[in-house]
Write a structure and sequence with these properties.
Jelly Rolls; five-stranded antiparallel beta sheet; 2 helices; 11 strands
């Protein structure tokens, strides 16, 4: 540190400019010391902590790893396996108003699958007027009784199930193509019977050409 000049005993006092220089030098020295202390404090605060050799490392429970695989023990959902037991073919003629009757052997779930065929609501000897669509595959199933009627109209609301109803078409080829793959599944009780019937007006079944063939299956799961 700079030390201001002191006059020797007996010397004359220093000139004023010397005293000013000494004062400035003292201030600069004090400022430098203060700045050095401040810098030293910041350096101390930013230092790396010294590791404790006796400290225990963090446990796995307190240090989770991103992307760690789940250890859940819940079992995956297993879809049931479907089993179909064919109970044979059912043929429903278009000119039979009471339809075809089948008896249910066991309580459970049954599936009715369209296989082939169609019927027309106009006899072959009485062609329909031009533009009228007459070919159908629709079969109504009535439970424990025959079809019910509202005048000439079959009561659709009383049907237990409706099978292969794709609407009326101009030709048998068109309607059978539309019905391919149609199926209906229902729950039925052992001993019940179903009347399967084509759809026409009450007085108009006579002479209707065609037959619809269905296959029915008992459906179980395991």
């Amino acid at each position: 540190m700079y030390t201001p000049l002191q006059p020797e005993p007996g010397d004359s006092p220093a000139p004023s400019w010397v005293r000013k220089v000494n004062s400035i030098a003292a201030l600069v020295g004090a400022f430098a010391a203060l700045l050095g202390a401040i810098i030293g404090i910041f350096v101390w605060m930013g230092r790396e902590p010294i590791p404790d050799p006796n400290a225990r490392p963090p446990s796995a429970a307190t240090s989770p790893t991103l992307g760690q695989a789940s250890t859940s023990t819940s079992s995956p959902h297993v879809r049931p396996i479907e089993h179909l037991e064919s109970l044979g073919l059912i043929r429903i003629k278009g000119d039979v108003r009471d339809g075809t009757r089948i008896v249910v052997p066991d309580s459970g779930r049954y599936r009715f699958v369209y296989r082939e065929g169609s019927y027309s609501t106009y006899p072959e000897n009485a062609p329909a007027p031009k533009g009228i669509l007459t070919w159908r595959t629709a079969i109504y199933a009535f439970r424990n009784g025959g079809p019910t009627w509202n005048g000439q109209d079959i009561r659709q609301s009383d049907a237990f199930a409706i099978i292969a109803d794709t609407g009326d078409k101009a030709t048998l080829l068109e309607v059978e193509t539309a019905a391919a793959g149609s199926q209906t599944e229902v729950e039925i009780t052992a001993g019940d019977y179903l009347s399967l019937v084509g759809v026409d007006g009450y007085s108009y079944y006579s002479g209707n050409p065609g037959t619809v063939t269905l296959e029915w299956f008992r459906v179980t799961y395991s």
